[in-house]
Amino acid sequence: MLSRITSKEIQTAESRPGDVPAARGGGTLHAHRVMLVVQAFTALSGADHGPSEIAAATGLNVAVVYRILQSGISTSIFLRVPPGRYRLGPGAARIGMQAMAATPNVSAARPVLERLSRVVDGLALLWVLSPYGGPRKACAASAPGRYDFESLGLSVADLIEVGQSLRVGASGRVIAAHLPPFLVSAVLEQPFPVAGVGPGAVRDAGKFTASLGGVREAGYAVSREEIPGWSAVAAPVMWGDTVYGAVSVLKPSSLMPGDLALPIAATTAAAERLTLLASGESDLHPVADMRHLVPVATGSTSRQEGSARP
User: Fold this and answer.
1) Cα–Cα distance for residue pair 111/90, rounded to 1 Å
2) How much is the pTM?
3) Residues 6+ apart with CB under 8 A from 53
């Protein structure tokens, strides 16, 4: 249920003496109603909704909802989908794209990924959520360390298919765990990758859905052999209460330690830094401070040139 303004609050705001004029108060309340209608599209299941459904979710009068929907058609915020239903339109998408353009760019993310790559001695990646055509992920930045994408042993076609899917890998589960239920359903409706997937992948839709609560609670996900021969740790990058993407670090399974305390600590620390940057706040701690995560008696974090196949 979305936040509501009750009829008593409306009457009080519009008749309160010595406050803003009633017309301005009414305008503010109308703007709030418009925002409630827009938010309803992100809270309700499915792509399109009728005025009665939105009214029930927001507590607004059906006639008010209908007028708001109609007024949004001219700016393409809403599209009318016969019969008598509406969905978010390209105007809403433009707003989202403008907002996403203000998030950290690759140059801001790369030092964090490079530090993570050195600490864990693995392939560090920043994945971002891509909503077009159904929820998927796209690689926005990477720090390969001594590995590269060829090290994964996948063809280009399989790498693209597996890399985009939220059903495969720790990064996919981390992102899916922070999506609303109707988008998780959309993920499950997408075909499972045909090739390039290892025995550790969670193919069963019920088990995949059941695992998401534990991922949210833990704040990270672990995958073993979801890509043949590789293990990974991933943590979410958030933008307020909305998932922006995920940071993951991959390493050959034979070299990933049984005790995952270091990879988990380093990955979640990197995700927290990028979450801070996505929120527009200053990062008060330099990236170099992650050095305390490196065990004193290990040489495994030294960076090596070139690529190595597992």
Assistant:
1) 35
2) 0.77
3) 44
